[in-house]
């Protein structure tokens, strides 16, 4: 590892992937993606949320990391990774409708979680087929929201100018992932005709890079 880090210090970082996931302590990105130093540019926050550009959130850090990864590092893919038992999704489910409009009485955590409200709305939208895991439906509302949130945050990513431009040029791919903590199993989002399905990543499969 020492030699590898010395090489990376000399040559600089050239990660091929931006990996955006939750701050949850049970997620170990190097384990999930079988990656080492220099492989992933990582953004972690509560609920793996991507604020829409221009959202009055007072937080530019996610957008800045996206811009830097796409424009400067020229990553080839961005993965949004949600996970089972996400506390942020549980909190969102418990929130009252309209609560986000309550203004100054909000704590930073509640203000931040507003970026997940579109995921709640997406889940409640009957015209959209439910996201599901390979071979089964989500076990409960929390799991359904965890999956739906990945799909929704990918949509928020596409709204970022640098991402839209790179997608248009065909130099960037977006991926959705779900990590089931109890199963120690990663699932990759595939767009099936009947909705969004997260397929199991098997050991022999390559995690997108
Ligand atoms: Zn989480």
Overall description:
The chain is α/β, with parallel strands linked by helices. It has a single domain (2-200), classed as Carbonic anhydrase (Beta-carbonic Anhydrase, Chain A), CATH 3.40.1050. Helices cover 36% and strands 21% of the residues. It is built from eight helices and seven strands. The chain has helices at residues 2-11, 29-33, 61-72, 87-94, 108-113, 117-124, 141-158, 161-168, and strands at residues 17-22, 40-45, 77-83, 132-133, 173-180, 185-192, 195-200. The protein has a seven-stranded mixed β-sheet with strand order 2-1-3-5-6-7-4, with helices on one face. β6 (185-192) and β7 form a beta hairpin. α3 runs parallel beside α8 and α6 (117-124) crosses α7 (141-158). The longest helix has 18 residues, at 141-158. The chain is globular and about 50 Å long. The chain starts with a helix and ends in a 9-residue tail after the last strand. The mean pLDDT is 90. Bound molecules: zinc ion. Zinc ion binds next to α4. Zinc ion is lined by residues 22, 24, 47, 83, 86-88.
